[in-house]
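About this split. The held-out portion is used to measure sequence recovery: a designer receives only the structure tokens and must propose an amino acid at every position. Recovery is the fraction of positions where the proposal matches the reference. Here is one held-out target exactly as it appears in the evaluation file.
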């Protein structure tokens, strides 16, 4: 459980820092609050854009929930995916979370699908 929490926290933090850096500071797609409100709007709809920083914090919370869900799913799938164990990192949830961070969710799903075909 501690490993899942640590991996989810690390992956979620790296992911949100990367997203905020790219979309807010480099691409100028909006201020940090707006980007976090966009995450909240996936669950709450347009009301998320009227809630200020409270909704931005909700978006951040949703982001971490997703990171922990991916981490938990990977830990549960890891024993059944021997080809994933060949990763350069020995801790399974950290390995998958870094894979998600490097290649995005699609890359991680392709990696799992490739393991299931072997």
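Reference sequence for scoring:
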């Amino acid at each position: 459980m501690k490993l899942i929490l640590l991996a989810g926290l690390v992956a979620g933090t790296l992911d949100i820092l990367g997203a905020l850096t790219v979309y807010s500071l480099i691409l100028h797609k909006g201020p940090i609050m707006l980007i976090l409100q966009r995450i909240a709007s996936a669950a709450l709809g347009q009301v998320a854009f009227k809630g200020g920083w409270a909704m931005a914090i909700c978006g951040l919370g949703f982001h971490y929930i997703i990171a922990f869900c991916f981490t938990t799913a990977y830990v549960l799938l890891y024993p059944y995916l021997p080809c994933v164990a060949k990763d350069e990192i020995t801790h399974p949830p950290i390995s998958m979370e870094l894979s998600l961070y490097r290649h995005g969710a699609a890359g991680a799903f392709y990696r799992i699908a490739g393991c299931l075909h072997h």
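Annotator remark: The longest helix spans residues 52-77.
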